[in-house]
Amino acid sequence: MDIRQLNDIKPRFVTRTVGDELVIVPLSGNVAQMNRLFTLNETGKFIWDNSEKCTDTESMVVLLTENFDVQPDAALTDVEAFLEKMEMLYSDK
Q1: pLDDT mean over 71-91
Q2: Among candidate residues 85, 80, 74, 68, the one with its CA nearest the CA of residue 9
Q3: How far apart are CA 77 and CA 2, in angstroms?
C-alpha cells in the first residue's frame, strides 16, 4: 500500500480521537466492525491525519522529520510499517 491508496481507503473507516491516540474501525456497509478496531499511536495518527498532504512515502518522511525529532531512515521505517499494517487491516475485511 502507498500513501495514495491509504487516502482511497480512509472513507471506509470510522475514526475517533481518544487522548493522544486515534481509534480507527473498519466499516462493512454502514456498520462499524467493532471487533476489528485498531489504535494508532502519535506517529500513526500523524500519518493518518496528514496523508492528504503527501503524494508518496518520501514526502511523508519529510513531513515527519519536520515535525518530530526523528531521522529520515527511522521515519521511513515507521511509514512503511504503518502502510503495511493498514494494508493487512484493510485486506482482512
Answers
A1: 92
A2: 85
A3: 13
Distance CA 35, CA 3 (A): 25
42 to each of 21, 27, 32, 64, 93, how far by Cα in Å?
A: 6, 23, 23, 11, 25
Rounded CA gap, 67 and 2, in Å? 21
Note whether 36 and 92 are within 8 A (CB).
Answer: yes
Which secondary-structure segment (H or E) carries 16? strand 13-18
pTM as predicted: 0.88
**Measured between alpha carbons, how far is 52 from 10 in angstroms, rounded to an integer?**
10
The yes-or-no verdict on residue 40 having pLDDT over 90 is: yes
Task: Specify whether the backbone of 37 is left (phi greater than 0), alpha (psi in -120 to 50) or beta.
Answer: beta
